[in-house]
Design a protein that fits this description.
With about 725 residues, the protein is an alpha/beta fold. The chain has four domains: about 60 residues, no CATH class; about 100 residues, OB fold (Dihydrolipoamide Acetyltransferase, E2P) (Beta Barrel), CATH 2.40.50; about 200 residues, Rossmann fold (3-Layer(aba) Sandwich); about 180 residues, Rossmann fold (3-Layer(aba) Sandwich). It contains 24 helices and 21 strands. A seven-stranded parallel beta sheet has the order 11-12-10-13-14-9-15, with helices on both faces. Strands 16-21-20-17-19-18 form a six-stranded parallel beta sheet, with helices on both faces. It starts with 9 loop residues before the first helix and ends in a 10-residue tail after the last helix.
């Protein structure tokens, strides 16, 4: 029987096994099974270090039986024929003195099967019995010379990601059945690519990774499949980039004495060299007849908003409109305020006091009042509003534009491909230009993999005179008195007429629909010690009594949020206790100190964004990271690391290095698994760079990949199915 990758497993391994593989491991086809790569390999006779077992984990260990005993317990009951229950206890060892208890109930035959000196594989969930690690009713596979039944006779035994219902040797046996009848496969890696990098062919690689004789076999196979993943990813991105370049767009040329020029003339500060350079790159893109698709990375406080506004005004000068998409209402409202303030009379088109050459800036959010919403929608549809700022509400069908020429997406990682497409397709046949912005610096590996279809601009310098923010860890576990000193520092700043933020991971107990605890933390399920509502009350009555303390969070009405932010911006609030709604876009130059409670519960890049809210004026900023994490745990080490640097790129590299791959690729919230199994966008920069160069060469020479049909098929499959999760941020 000949087998191909697309065949269903049922036809090869049988219905019962196929059902288990599908239900418990989501493996349905031959390719699914063959790409379910081993997690590790053990050499026959090389025992597992039992001292490293972690309670609660499902493990497969290779160990030697020390002793096996049957013990009766309880009562035989009233029936003379009923035997008392038996507990079989088997002690296994790794040869170093560390031991593991295997416990079986009413399986007395295990004592004769697992005699002292027996070598075997044992799989189960690690538990605890009277202080000793235990596997309760584990799966067992005896490793004896000449054993043929389970195909585990090779010197290297693959250990697969398994489950309680499907153990590693069932997977190995199924893989062996497939490999024995597998057809020669068309190889997605073209021959010249394999030769250039010394990579194995696909059939040989499947053999090497699943049935290696020596470590070099699986290592070479792993390198081949890792490179394949990188190449497929990069080819998909390069093709997407070419398809975008082929779409039509309306060129938006600069206009002499137009809005963009008048805006720059009225700025109260000089643009930095970086802002001018990036602005020129974007301006040139907007003049082309195909859509710009550019990523703007900007350090905290580098002035991305001004750069984006100049681009929006160039489009308005060219008789188009610009839409600014923000992920939260607080940020959308802040952008609306900032743009209106920056433009002044230039934002009052057709209004009393407006400039001769002016436009309007409108806000569209889900909770906007009916009258304000109607007015905003009319201005967007008529073209009177050159700039429309909004949240996901902009994606609704009822929001129409007269001539949408530019879409600016802020903090773009919070939006999916489908959401952005719903807005960019509003331009009809002529697609709008797209500028996506992030205030989180992105490591090169992530940029190449996640944003590889975008041109990239970097805005690293901050305006002259901007002072670095001093960051200090407040370790309440070993220095509880430091928390009081933190509140004293807040008082000292406020006494000098300055203001402070206090950030908490949650709103408060019993608040329906409150914002989730931030991602990238050690244990998001564990509730933090305090929330905004509780802490604000506590501070008013205690450490900050007498100061004007107010709360801000995402569950307030838009009017309430606006009122609080306006009062804070005007200096009528001394201390703003808030959730992460103040993470980005909030600009109050008079705020000089930020206290972050339960700081270990935030990702490093998020902390970097938060501390960027202070020190934006003439006075230096101070960020205090309050934590009760012990000094020797990873969470505390990360806080110490961010306190030691203000370099956003160094922070982002640290952040990415401690996050799961799914978090980096944006697939964790999707409920799907990443298609990247062996390639790490965090660790394999050199592999990704080589694959990107190959992808560009292949697509430029053969855009349709007609000369590489197997590669084309895999790329199309990736683009057309849920395996394209890694493109979610692109």
């Amino acid at each position: 029987m000949a087998v191909r990758l697309g065949d269903r497993l049922r036809s090869v391994v049988g219905g019962a096994t196929a059902k288990k593989l599908g239900e418990h491991l989501d493996l349905h086809s031959v390719e699914d099974l063959l790409r379910h790569y081993p997690r590790r390999y053990v050499r026959r006779g090389e025992l597992t270090a039992l001292s490293r077992l972690v309670p609660g984990e499902h493990v497969t260990v290779q160990a030697e039986v020390v002793q096996a005993t049957n013990k009766t317990f309880g009562s035989a009951g009233s029936s003379r024929r009923r035997r008392p229950p038996v507990r079989t206890e088997v002690v296994v060892s790794d040869g170093t003195g560390a031991r593991l208890l295997l416990t079986f109930f009413n399986q007395s035959w295990r004592a004769s099967q697992l005699r002292a000196g027996t070598l075997g594989l044992f799989a189960g969930k690690v538990g605890d019995f009277r202080g000793q690690p235990q596997l309760l009713h584990p799966e067992c596979e005896i490793l004896e010379e000449g054993t043929e039944g389970r195909k585990l006779t090779r010197p290297l035994i693959p250990i697969y990601p398994a489950s309680l219902k499907v153990n590693t040797w069932v997977i190995a046996a199924s893989v062996a059945m497939v490999l024995d009848v597998l057809d020669p496969l068309p190889d997605p890696l073209p021959a010249e690519v394999r030769e250039r990098h010394g990579l194995r062919g696909i059939n040989e690689a499947f053999e090497g990774i699943h049935r290696p004789d020596e470590p070099g076999d699986w290592q070479q196979a792993r390198d081949r499949f890792r490179y394949e993943e990188a190449l497929l990813t990069q080819v998909a991105l390069v093709r997407r980039r070419r398809s975008i370049a082929a779409l039509p767009a309306v060129p938006r040329q600069p206009v002499a004495d137009g809005l963009a020029q008048r805006f720059e003339e009225r700025l109260p500060f000089a643009l930095t060299a970086g802002q001018r350079r990036v602005g020129a790159e974007i301006a040139a893109d907007l003049c082309r007849d195909h859509p710009m698709h550019r990523l703007l990375q900007g350090e905290v406080g580098s002035g991305k908003t001004v750069v984006a506004l100049r681009a929006m005004l160039q489009v308005v000068d060219g008789n188009g409109q610009a839409a600014l998409l923000a992920p939260t209402e607080v940020l959308a409202q802040q952008h609306h305020r900032s743009l209106t303030a920056l433009l002044g009379e230039l934002a009052m088109g057709g209004m009393l006091g407006g400039a001769e050459v002016a436009t309007r800036v409108r806000l569209v959010t889900g909770s906007l009042g009916a009258a304000a919403r109607r007015e905003a929608l009319l201005d967007a549809a008529s073209g009177a509003a050159g700039i429309v700022v909004g949240t996901h509400a902009l994606l609704e069908d009822r929001v129409q534009f007269a001539d949408l020429g530019l879409v600016v997406v802020d903090e773009q990682h919070r939006f999916g491909v489908e959401q952005r497409a719903a807005l960019t397709e509003r331009g009809g046949e002529k697609r709008p230009h797209v500028l996506v912005m992030t205030a989180t610096p992105i490591p090169r590996t992530v940029a190449m993999t996640v944003f590889g279809d975008l041109d990239t601009s970097l805005l690293a310098e901050v305006p002259p005179g901007r002072l670095p923010v001093q960051t200090t860890v407040v370790p309440t576990a070993e220095r509880p008195e430091w928390l009081q000193r933190a509140w004293d520092r807040v008082r000292e700043e406020c006494a000098q007429g300055r203001q402070a933020y206090v950030v908490c991971p949650r709103i408060g107990a019993g608040v329906a629909g409150e914002e989730p605890v931030p991602a990238g933390v050690d244990d998001p399920a564990t509730p933090p010690t305090t929330g905004v509502l509780e802490l604000a009350t506590e501070l008013r009555a205690g450490p900050l009594a007498g100061l004007r303390v107010e709360a801000l969070h995402g569950r307030l009405t838009p009017e309430a949020k606006d009122t609080v932010m306006d009062r804070f911006g005007a200096g009528d609030i001394d201390v703003l206790v808030a959730t992460t709604v103040v993470e980005v876009g909030v600009d109050v130059p008079n705020a000089t100190v930020m206290v972050v409670m339960d700081a270990e519960r935030f990702g490093l890049s998020q902390l970097h964004q938060l501390r960027g809210r202070v020190g934006r004026g003439a006075a230096p900023g101070l960020c205090l990271l309050v934590t009760d994490a012990p000094v020797d745990v990873p969470a505390r080490e990360r806080l110490d690391a961010i306190a030691a640097t203000d370099d956003g790129f160094a922070v982002s590299q640290l952040d990415v290095s401690v996050r799961r791959e799914g978090d980096v690729l944006g697939v964790s919230q999707s409920g799907r698994r990443s298609s990247l199994r062996l390639l790490s966008v965090v660790e394999h920069e050199e592999v990704i760079a080589r694959a990107r160069a190959d992808a560009i060469s292949l697509v430029e020479a053969d855009p349709g990949l007609t000369g590489a049909p197997a590669l084309s098929e895999q790329v199309l499959l990736m683009e057309a199915t849920a395996r394209a999760d890694f493109l979610e941020k692109a």
